[in-house]
Design goal:
With 350 residues, the chain is α/β, with parallel strands linked by helices. The chain folds into four domains: 103 residues, no CATH class; 54 residues; 95 residues, Ribonuclease H-like superfamily/Ribonuclease H (Nucleotidyltransferase, domain 5); 86 residues. 46% of the residues lie in helices and 20% in strands. The protein has eleven helices and eight strands. The strands form two sheets. The protein has a six-stranded mixed beta sheet.
Length: 350
């Protein structure tokens, strides 16, 4: 059917759009939803025809199963919103569409977005309140919790993954704090983190586990878990950590062939904390020259120069006696002092 519109009617329509431009977009959205719903319904009807082996109204002798109408349901799509569809049925109730799974109310992309917002700190109740504006359908707090629990299962599977295929040569370890919901309140929970560097120079997270970073027992449990997951301890050459004596002792016991290196960041912070403000920049520059020396001999040269200058000046009387030990720690954590090659100074995340 051909539809005609006069110039006057077109101008009136344009004027109405100018007055209420949002109405136009609302009509477009409604039309898109209707078209998508019709398309999905036709797609499922074609799927049923394939399942039965014949088209609508076609009869084949000996076939006992037939179409049995359809039922209405709604499905939420990302970027479109909630659409109405008709799901066809067969008489024997054997057909189950793969286009829109019966147990799902919205597509996986929306579930992933909900999980990201939940992990960003948005509560289940807040997500439920804003979901209608965001996706055109209100999602209850129970649905949000169910979606996040599926994410937790995936995270746990990753956390328990096999490490035998990871050729780890260096390990970074430290503790951090994560905000977690416990009994309805948000609390800071200490978490142990181990990051590995492979023989090809890629960084990868090896383990996350709740525990006190000051506790040697917690670190031993972490290392035993990594080895239980088939991490090859004999390949590990170096462990980078802060100055916790318990951690260093446990690491050397669990990874007997590895050396220990103090974390450069922790040492630099400890050193600069002992330095008067007007000298911080100069000391920081000399610390970096030791860290990033082009060779082991250069690292020794910079270290001896730095040590002699600080011991022979009035500067040494302005700081506690532990400063010289901290200076030695700078040299001890230098990669060149450890004899590591130049291409091992930077790693790529994987």
């Amino acid at each position: 059917m051909k539809m005609e519109i006069t110039v006057t009617e077109a101008l009136e329509l344009i004027n109405e759009i100018r007055k209420q431009p949002n109405d136009l977009f609302e009509m477009i959205r409604a039309d898109v939803k209707e078209s998508v719903g019709h398309y999905l319904s036709e797609l499922m009807d074609t799927e049923l025809s394939e399942f039965l082996g014949r088209k609508r109204y076609e009869r084949i002798d000996g076939m006992s199963n037939h179409r049995n109408g359809s039922y209405a349901r709604k499905y939420t799509l990302k970027g479109i919103g909630e659409v109405a569809v008709r799901v066809p049925r067969d008489r024997n109730a054997d057909f189950e569409t793969q286009v829109i799974p019966r147990s799902k109310q919205y597509e996986d992309a929306l579930r992933e977005d909900l999980c990201v917002m939940f992990l960003s700190g948005v509560s289940t109740r807040t997500l439920s309140l804003i979901s209608e504006k965001l996706i055109g359908r209100k999602i209850c707090a129970t649905e949000v919790s169910k979606a996040s629990s599926q994410l937790a299962e995936a995270v746990e599977a990753w956390r328990q993954r096999d490490l035998s295929v990871e050729p780890i040569k260096y390990m970074y370890m430290d503790g951090t704090l994560f905000s977690m919901r416990i009994d309805g309140t948000i609390e800071k929970v200490p978490v142990l983190v181990v990051i590995g560097v492979t023989e090809t120079g890629h960084r990868t997270a090896l383990g996350l586990q709740s525990g006190d970073k000051e506790s040697a027992v917690s670190w031993r449990e972490m290392f035993k878990d990594l080895k239980k997951r088939e991490l090859d301890a004999n390949r590990v050459q170096l462990g980078i950590m802060d100055g916790l004596p318990g951690l260093e002792r446990v690491f050397t016991e669990e990874f007997t062939k590895a050396k220990v290196q103090r974390c450069q960041i922790h040492v630099a912070r400890n050193v600069l904390a002992k330095v008067p403000k007007k000298l911080k920049k100069n000391v920081a520059d000399q610390v970096r020259s030791i860290f990033y020396a082009s060779s082991k001999s250069k690292a020794i040269e910079f270290f001896e120069s730095f040590k002699a200058m600080r011991e022979g000046s009035s500067f040494s009387s302005k700081v506690p006696g532990k400063f010289i030990k901290l200076v030695f720690d700078i040299f001890a954590v230098s990669p060149r002092r450890m004899g590591l090659p130049a291409n091992n100074q930077r790693y790529r995340a994987r």
